[in-house]
Design goal:
Helices cover 29% and strands 25% of the residues. With 214 residues, the chain is an alpha+beta fold. The longest helix has 27 residues, at 130-156. It is elongated. 5% of the residues are buried.
């Protein structure tokens, strides 16, 4: 395997059992569900389009196991082999190879015909969805709150560096950021009160229009 062939990274995986389904040999349907992320770039835009359209769907897993045995006789296929053929029925029981003691799962790839016919993409994540938009708006709002706090902090606590204020804000929730911003705004008003640039002078008896003089 080469890193230049990599297009996505799997960041979590779990074993899922579907109680409403059975395998071909009558066991509970169990599969591995993995989540992967992919950066949208000019290089992989065609691949993403094919995934969204369902053209690229079937997948296969490259893995290593310590033991592969026959489901009919239990013989180790890796070391001895047996006379039974995978996919055939013997005495009413389907023959399959059991993969035991997995040691590594090193890659997932798109293939034309997967070994497991149902293996493939079951769900795609669309960045333009409402959830993504809400998350983006929330991030933008937090950035606005942080900018207001840093600006007000310059007058309220000028001794503190803006980088220190920014580090404090990074760990706060939206509610805490909003409370801090409001508190800083009130204190900033006290330190820097608003003064009108064009304030009228007191009227005198000599000129009735003197209150409009600057």
């Amino acid at each position: 395997m080469k890193s230049k062939d990599q297009t996505a990274r799997i960041y979590s995986a779990e074993v899922v059992t579907d109680s409403g389904r059975k395998t071909s040999d009558g066991e509970p349907y169990t599969y591995i569900k993995a989540k992967a992320y992919m950066v949208r770039t000019e290089k992989n835009k065609d691949l993403i389009a094919e995934i969204d359209a369902g053209i690229k769907k079937e997948t296969s897993v490259g893995c290593c196991v310590a033991d592969i045995s026959c489901s009919i006789c239990g013989m180790n296929i890796k070391t001895h082999g047996c006379e039974h053929q995978k996919g055939k029925v013997y005495g009413g029981k389907l023959c399959c190879y059991l993969l035991s003691e997995p040691t590594d799962a090193y890659e997932w790839s798109f293939v034309a015909v997967p070994a497991q016919k149902n293996a493939g993409v079951i769900k795609s994540f669309v960045p333009e969805s409402e959830t993504e938009k809400l998350a983006q708006w929330a991030d933008e709002y937090k950035d606005e709150l942080k900018a207001d706090i840093i600006r007000c902090a310059a007058s309220v606590i000028p001794e503190m560096k803006s980088t220190s204020v920014e580090e404090i804000c990074a760990s706060l929730s939206v509610k805490a950021l909003r409370e801090m911003r409001d508190a800083f705004r009130e204190n900033a008003k006290k330190n820097l009160p608003v003064v009108r640039q064009l304030d009228c002078v007191q009227a005198d008896s000599e000129n009735s229009n003197s209150e409009y003089k600057i």
